[in-house]
Request: fold
Amino acid sequence: MNGMQPGIIILREGTDTSQGIPQLVSNINACQAVADSVRTTLGPRGMDKLVAKGSRATISNDGATIMKLLEVAHPAAKTLVDISMSQDTAVGDGTTSVVLLAAEILAKLKPLVEEGISPTRMIQTIRKTGKYAVDRVAELAVTVEQEEMLLKCAGTALNSKLISSHRDLFAPMVVSAVTKLHQAGNVDEIMDWISIKQIPGGDVRQSFLVEGVAFRKTFSYAGFEQMTKRFENPKILLLNVELELKSEKENAEVRISTPAEYQSIVEAEWQVIYDKLDACINCGANIVLSKLPIGDLATQYFADRGLFCAGRVNDGDMKRVAVSTKGAVQTTTSGLTESILGTCGLFEESQVGDERFNLFTQCPSALTCTIVLRGGTEQFIAESERSVHDALMVVKRTIQSGSVVAGGGAVEMCVSNSLRRRALEIEGKEQLIVSAYSKALEVIPRQLCENAGLDATDVLAALRRKHRLEGDNVCWYGVNIEEDGITDTFDLGVWEPSDNKMNSLQAATEAACVILSIDETVISPRSQDPGAQASGQMGGGGGMSGAMGNAMDIANSGGARTGQMGQGVSYMKGRGGG
Amino acid sequence: MLKDGHEHFSDEDGGGAVVARSITAACELSRMLSSSMGPQGRNKLIVNHLEKLMVTSDCASILKEIEVEHPAAKLLELAVQQQETECGDGTNLALMFAGELLTSTLDLMKTMGWRHKTDIMEGFHLASTKLLNELLVSNIDNTDGALQELKEKVLKPVLGSKHYGSEDILSDLVIEACQIVLNKKDMSVLNPSSIRTVKIMGGNVGQSACVQGFVAQRGVETTIKASEKNAKIAVYASGVEASGTEAKGTVLMKTADDLKNYNRTEETKMEEIIQGIAESGIKVIVTGGNISDMALHFIEKYKLIALKLSSKWELRRLCQATGATALVRLGAPTPEEMGSATTTQKIVGGRTVTVFENDVDGTSKIATLVLRASTSSVLNDLERAVEDGVHAVQMACKDGRIVYGGGACEMECAVRLDRLADQHPGLEQYAIRAFAKSLECVSRTLAENAGWDAVQVLADMRASHVNGQIDAGVDIENDPGSKGMKDANVYDLMYVKRSALKLAIEAATTVLKVDQIIMSKRAGGPKMPGQ
Reply:
């Protein structure tokens, strides 16, 4: 870091020639603080966080969810939130580990920064090393028989969540949901087609998978209870039409000249709604669903004729019904034909907890599934939903990547081992940087141990030794959380999709590079925030006004101006980033 | 003399105090940004007044956000802005050279005495004329090959200085995009706005791609997600819905039949319209407005694809990409008004996008780069890098003359100016020498940012240049020292460099010419404390 001062000859009093370093260190510290807040959630023995925001409390173990709720304010540390989010959208799981990795890489490089190795060198080397690590994971990845692979990956993903003790229930559920969609070629839009419904009450074990569509009984009018609640092979009509008696259009006005006409208008209005209802019945439908309300008149009318109807079905549910029953949503009741009707093997209304559900099962197209979650409290179910969501994403990812690596810190140790060996062959400062990176990877097994209450030092030493002895051979020894020690986690069935790991390594490396590349922080005040002016003058006072001297006084005389920067800019270079 | 509240400062004391202060302020700005120069330049983290976070090393973007207020520093900022609009690159060079020139002037004035200011200015004038008119041109590398090769030579250094490590991937993408949009007849015209970027979080830079055509960042509205190859497209600027009248109107009904038919007619009308569109061969409907439920129903019925694009700009780009004309009335377009493209809805990294690919040769005037990175700040930085890259290609198309990069060209000019100074009698000699020395700042900053000992690198380079190796530049990768830029394939566009240096010199001389600053009382501003 001899190079931050490009030869300006006028050196002002007390110019700090090592300006970048304290700023960088402060950024690194901020990142570590953020990582520390999610650190304890990693792995099967990870603890949950309760984040209270206003009156809403969220209990979660999911890195991305916590990071989102934390509202990190430090500008550099926001980068970590970013990568956690991007891991969430791209992979859906591993959000905690990506944050930990990035922060640990930075932490391990911090002493080197303080020693004065140029950050630009580091960035270069870290980029190269990151690429090597990713390649190494790709090399290590194993392809196995699909079903087993999916089950185990789902199990591993669920392992670290609140519902880990019920993974024997959820893993097959998740896998069968995703494989169904995959066979139908629809795996990309997985979250659109798999819906997760929460029903508070009951026991987690009462959660179930519906192969088809299920949604909560919608708001209903009198007459609902007289309807038939069970059909086999029904014809289903999907509408986006309001079936209620009401004025047709706001901008229409009726002017009549004789009282006799009045009656005809009233009748016409009734006629309009009856026409619509008849159209629905005449097309042969047994079940009528509408996105818009179905009024009491219509409900009664349908009930009398042995039909079932539900209004105000939400958009996503309607889409899913349309897809799985192969029906088409109609916006008008004219021109209804047989071909737009959907069908399914069985429709029934059933009681789940204290909610009533409409279930459409044995559908002609297996494009949708619904997972119904049960559980004691609202927070518990919300967290279960997040866990199931993560598991779904992991299974999807596994199908796409087609290969797995062993979890439990095994793959990290393996990559770390080859990096360490590689580092020793490198000449110069790069050696230190590569070994720092390799050491940083150990954070995953170490944190797993710590969260599980094991002696991390012992376990890590054992792991390092094991991997070292294996040399370049593939070695899947990782942390054994159950029995305190190390074990072959691949045999144990702790598998993760290789794409997931590769993505975390890439994202963590990129984030570390971004943080390292920052040597200066400039914060402008919010435009509507006059209060910031005071802090700006303070910041300017330390940073620049000394150099400006009278020139700045001149500038100041023009009004509320503060030095070169806009008013209230707090300028942080070489000082603590707040 | 002056109205109350005005403030003025002048050189009454004869000490050049105003110049000195202006220079200090301007230098402060350039010093701040010098660490962002070159491939190894560091980033700045900026939180602007809207609390938007950006991490960048792009000089123009930084200046835009940090709100420079000091009048003298502002002059430099204006020069940078000018450079940005004119060339789109070389902004840091302009700022740094101006700062460096001012610094050496201040030094010179202190040693020579303030009264020699005119001599110094005269010397600068001589040196800059020589530099801009003769030396830069004499530095041109004549071995320029095909346009393709030329682009690669200048593109990589540009992208490298913005996003080091990804320049290979990015330069391929940028060249691919440029080739799509380059006018086949007139190769010298490239419109940068016809290359769009779409940023998608997740993945890494290597997963970025170039699409010939248009990418909309939202999914289609219909159940059909992909069209056949080169399907016909109709673009409507208006919404696809029953249009309401501007004037407030009321439908008057006389009889019960009117009421019954009222809704029916609306339905039939819409069906007629959609049917007409479908029958004209259109497969895809894109609208700038809303699609009513009724319209969507018929669109589904006739098995069309519909997409909403709310931005007018996007709609215009789409028209360019597909060759369609945006219609304001709802109805079947004429064959000339139709566009064609292969429309597909895809999911990229968790985001749903609709891709309009137009591979019919010569019809697409739009190329879209889909950029991927794991954080939004990297994405934004990539976008800026691509923009600069496209500008570089644009400039290369306009004026293909190139000079050696990596500080080599500046060093060569410095060496030659030194010789000129030696021959020059009179006080201007000092100014020319100071000018030459200022040129070295490029090499020095590059070396410093790379983490080298700048003094050593500079000595090495200078020796090579005096010995006639004109392509010796800073080796930022391997060892502290110099290497041949010709082998390393690092070139800069002469035009960009010339413009940057010219603007820098102009800005610096403007600052130097100031001997008095008068600032009016800001209208309505709060009174400053202590006045």
